[in-house]
Amino acid sequence: MDLFRALERAVSKFVEEAVQRPHPAAAPSADAERWDWPAFKGNLLHFARTLSYPAALPTRIDLDGLKIPIERLREQTAGGIEHGRMGYVNIYTGTLVLSRTVQGDQHSVRIPVERSIANVPVMGIHSHPRGLFQLDREDLHLSAQDYLSFLSTREEWVQIAVTGTSLIAAVKTSATPTRVDAQAVERRLNQLWEDAGRQTATPGRRVRLFSKLACIEYGLGLYIQIPEGPMALGQVRLTPKLD
Ligand SMILES: [Zn+2]
What we know:
Layout: H1 3-12, E1 15-18, E2 34-35, H2 37-50, E3 60-62, H3 67-77, E4 83-90, E5 95-99, E6 102-103, E7 119-127, H4 144-152, E8 158-162, E9 167-172, H5 182-199, H6 203-217, E10 220-225, E11 232-235
Parallel strand pairs: 2-3, 7-8
Antiparallel strand pairs: 1-5, 3-11, 4-5, 4-6, 4-7, 8-9, 9-10, 10-11
Helix pairs in contact: 4-5, 5-6
Zinc ion binds at residues 126, 128, 142-143, 146, 161.
C-alpha cells in the first residue's frame, strides 16, 4: 500500500465526507476582490501547508462547495440544538474533508480537534439555532465563546456560524495573534461585550457590535452572507460603532 493510501485510510476513520480536492494554489493574492470556491479551497490548502495567516482578505468569499453540508447542519439544528463539524485539509493529498457532525446543546457545541501530521484542522463550522434572540437575523453573530475557541486553535483559520437563513464567518489575518493566553482573551472579550452593551441595549444589535469589536481587536476579517450569490459572503466594514 502506498503512503497516500495509508494516510487516506487513517483519515477515513473520522471523516464522513470528502468535499472535493482543492486547487494547489499560490499564496492568497493580496489584492483579490473575490475568492470564488476554487480560490478559497486553494487558499485553505496553502494555509494548511504554511500555517501563515494572509496579510489581506478579499471583499467577497464564495462557499459554494459547502452548500450541502450547511443545509444538512440547518436540518439537524431545527430542533434547537447546536451542531458543528471541523474542516480538515490533508496536506499530502490536498483534500478538504469535513469531520462527522457533533451535537452540542442549545447554546454551544464543542467540536473535537483531531490533529495528525497529515490533517490540519483549518475551518470550524457550527450552527446557531433560532430563538436565542427571537429573530433569526439576531442569531447572526459569533459569541465570546466562539471567538475564544477560534483564537485558541492556532490552525483554525476560518470559523463559520450557520443560522436558519444566513451565514457569518471570521477569518484570521497576519494581524491576528498566533499564540494567545486564553484567560486574557476571555477577560478582553468580556470587556468588549460590556463596551457593546454601553452603546446599545438591544440584544441583537449588541451581539453584532460585539462581533465587530472582537474582530477589530484580534485582526480578524468579518463576513456575512450577501444576496449576490446563494453562498456568497461579503466583508463587513469594521467600525467600533453600530451600523
Ligand atoms: Zn456560536
